[in-house]
Write a structure and sequence with these properties.
single chain; two-stranded antiparallel ribbon; alpha+beta; two-stranded antiparallel sheet
Length: 84
Amino acid sequence: MLIAGELTESASGEWLSAINPATEEVIGYVPAGNVEDVNRAAQAAKAAYPAWNALGVERRGELLREVARRLQERADEILEVEVC
């Protein structure tokens, strides 16, 4: 999980299987987030909001368009990971 800009494991320490619904095969594992993880993420978002808001709507839009551009550039790679 990515919380406050850092990759972190779930506070539970548990993992869930990610299953391909078409084949029912396990394709990976994801952290089993819990209430503590949600609270940490919400606190991080609340702490980050003033800086994000201070950027102004135009700059936030530019940044979001850049994220979209980068996702589009890697769409094939992302699709491959999602479908596997």
